[in-house]
Amino acid sequence: VDTELDIARVLSLCTNRKVQILPMKIKGQTYKTTPMEHMEQLYLDFEHFVPYQFDRLIITGAPLEQMPFEEVRYWPQLQQIMHWVDEHVERTLYICWAAQAGLYYHYGIPKYALSKKMFGVFRQHTLCPQLPIFRGFDDVFYMPHSRHTEIHKEDILANPDLTLIADSPENGVSIVMARGGREFFITGHMEYASNTLDNEY
To answer: Crossing angle, helix 75-88 and helix 97-107, to 10 degrees?
Structure first.
């Protein structure tokens, strides 16, 4: 629920367009941190979305980064969604664990375990400040991170289909772009409210 509110708040504050949010869930999946009544009332199964085209899709994270992707019980369904995205969604934003999952599924980029959890708010550097995604940003901005794994910069730079557009000396890879801006992979949480990380702590 907190994630829903964070994302809805950002969308309402940061766009001058009317935005309709349609929450999606994976059929048959049980959710440990959200009451099933909430999920059943507000969310539609992925199958309802399959025939349609969408402007944007946000795939959020999950506290699963210490598990291999193939051991996540809904990995086959998530792969199906990420395959469907290519033909049905204009632009896709992957957040945190979903960014790692998307980079792995689409581009074969592995994740690596950290010796201790990356947790805090860190300075980020824009590497492509001319991109529209950075409109209104300073060359240095701040992003919360909360994760046990990371993506290595050299893996991103070695893949010609990927562009590293923001990074940090403290948390490493921050934002990766692909397909000419149709895909963005954000390893942190730009959507967090000022107290979200504190509440998690």
So the answer is: 70
